[in-house]
Amino acid sequence: MSELLSAALMLIGASFLLLAAVGVVRMPDLFTRMQPATKAATLGVACMLLAVAVYFGRIGITTRAVAGIAFFFLTAPVTAHLLGRAAYFVGVPLWEGTVIDELRDKYDPLTHTCRSSAEPALDVRGDPRTDG
Amino acid sequence: MSAGGVLAIVDPVIFSMLSVALFLAFVRLVRGPSLPDRVVALDLIAALTVGFIAVYAIDTGERVFLDVAIVVALITFLGTVAFARYIERRASSE
């Protein structure tokens, strides 16, 4: 029974990982590519580790598998955010079909801080770029 | 192979699916127009490696491989964070 369940979980996980790889190849620009690489891959790996936990069915293995899943769920958004932020600063081009870029002119290019839409836009005097 | 009937059938299918996924991620790693694209591909390759190790642990019935998978996941996280910092630093120093 546990064998059947773990086989099904492995199949689901492998399908998600394959879909993630297809998405990474097929998506048009970096920021859409990060979507499958982060979400689908996280779900796929979680299914795989869950399959290991179900197959062995021991408390030590299950604890380690759940810890691994929790680690993946915590770190995947962090890496995606750091990488997307860095790529935005580098100026990786957006897809030509992009409808809206809400971060445009929000980032200070010198200090890399982001200002919210409630604050007024940068004028020439307040712009730290003109200092010195 | 310690696995029984169902897993003997399913395991080759899963290994081949993961291999195809690894090949596709490698295509993106080679083709990726920018450095962040390649880092994304490397991240995906690491996730696929963790999946491979998990399936291999079930295939061989060796429980120790789960620890290996967790360690690979940990090191990959550190590597991707370092890459992101490097890209951002390089952008601000130019």
How would you describe this structure to a colleague?
The complex is a heterodimer of chains A (132) and B (94). By secondary structure, chain A is mainly alpha-helical. Chain A has helices at residues 2-26, 30-56, 59-90. The N and C termini of chain A lie far apart (72 Å). Residues 124-132 of chain A have low confidence and may be disordered. Chain B has 94 residues and is an all-alpha fold. Chain B has one domain (5-93). Helices cover 87% and strands 0% of the residues of chain B. Chain B is built from three helices and no strands. Classes of the chains: A mainly alpha (132), B mainly alpha (94). Chains A and B meet through helix 1, helix 2 and helix 3 of A and helix 1, helix 2 and helix 3 of B.
- Alpha plus pi helix count of chain A: 3
- Spans of chain A of 5+ residues with little confidence (pLDDT < 50)? 124-132
H-E string of chain B: HHH
Helix content of chain A: 55-70%
Shape, principal axes of CA atoms of chain A: elongated
From the alpha-carbon coordinates, what is the Rg of chain A to the nearest angstrom? 21 Å
- Derived from helix and strand composition plus strand pairing, the structural class of chain A reads mainly alpha
Whole-angstrom Rg of chain B: 17 Å
The greatest interface between two protein chains, and residues involved on each side, is: A-B, 52 and 52 residues
Termini separation of chain A: 72 Å
Oligomer: heterodimer
Biggest sheet of chain A, open or closed, and with what strands and sense?
Answer: none
Ends apart, CA distance between termini of chain B? 55 Å
Quickly give the structural class of chain B. mainly alpha
Count of helix runs of chain B: 3
pLDDT < 50 stretches of chain B: none
